[in-house]
Amino acid sequence: MRKDSRLSRVLHVLIHLDAFEHPVTSDTLAKMLNTNPVVVRRTMALLRDQGYVKSIKGHSGGWSLAKSLSDITLLDIHQTLSENSVFTIGLTDEHTACPIEHAVNRALKDAMDEAESLLLKRFGEVTLSELSIEFKAQLAT
Questions:
Q1: pLDDT truncated to tens, each residue of the chain (141 aa)?
Q2: How far apart are CA 29 and CA 39, in angstroms?
Q3: DSSP string across 44-93
Q4: Are 91 and 101 in contact, with CB atoms under 8 Å apart?
Q5: Please, how many CA atoms are within 13 Å of residue 117, restricted to the half-sphere of its CB?
Q6: Partner residues linked to 127 by β-bridges
Q7: Facing residues of 24 across strands?
Q8: CA dist list (Å): 101 to 90, 107, 109, 111, 112
Q9: What is the 3-state secondary structure (H, E, C) of 104-115?
Q10: Cys-Cys with 66: which of 20, 54, 116, 128 at CB 3.0–4.6 Å?
C-alpha cells in the first residue's frame, strides 16, 4: 500500500525554512526532497494561500516562513494538504445488498472515525516549534 508522505515532507521543509536566514528556492527544496521543483512550487503555493509561507521573486528570491513555527500546528498543515481521511483503508462496496458487508463497513467506519478524531485532535496540539526544538537539540549533540 502506498503511503502519503506529503505531510511529513512539508513539515520537514517548514522546519528547514525556519533554520535558513534567507529565502530558499524551489530548486533547493526539491533537491532536499528528491522531487521536481514544480511539485514544490505547487505545494508551497497551497501553504502561501493559507498564509504560512511567502515567496519573493527575483535573484535573491525564494520561499520563507510568513508565520512563526509556534503559530502553526500539524493540523494546520494537514488541513492545507488534505482532501481525504488520514487513513488509506477503504470500505468495500462490491456487495451493497449483503448484510455482512453493511456490518463490517459500519464497524470499520466507526473505528476509523474515532481514531481519526483522536489523531486530528492531537495534531492540533502539536506546533511546529515543538518539532524544531527537538531538531535543534539533536543538532547540539
A1: 456 788 999 999 999 999 998 999 999 999 999 999 999 999 999 999 999 999 999 888 999 999 999 999 999 999 999 866 777 777 777 877 888 888 888 888 899 889 999 999 999 999 999 999 887 777 777
A2: 10
A3: HHHHHHTTSEEEE-STT-EEEESS-GGG-BHHHHHHHH-SS-S-------
A4: no
A5: 6
A6: 73
A7: 63
A8: 13, 10, 12, 15, 16
A9: HHHHHHHHHHHH
A10: 54
Q: 24 by DSSP, 3-state: which?
A: strand
What's the rounded Cα separation, in Å, for the pair 128 and 116? 20
Query: CA-CA-CA-CA torsion for 95, 98, 104, 106, nearest 10 degrees?
Result: 100
Which residue segments constitute the domains of the chain, with CATH numbers given? 6-140 (1.10.10.10)
Residue that the C-alpha cell 527575483 belongs to: 58
Parallel, antiparallel, or unpaired: how do β-strands 53-56 and 62-65 relate?
A: antiparallel
Q: Which amino acid is at 1?
A: M
Cell 535558513 belongs to residue: 20
Distance CA 51, CA 44 (A): 10
- CB distance 64 to 23 below 8 Å: yes
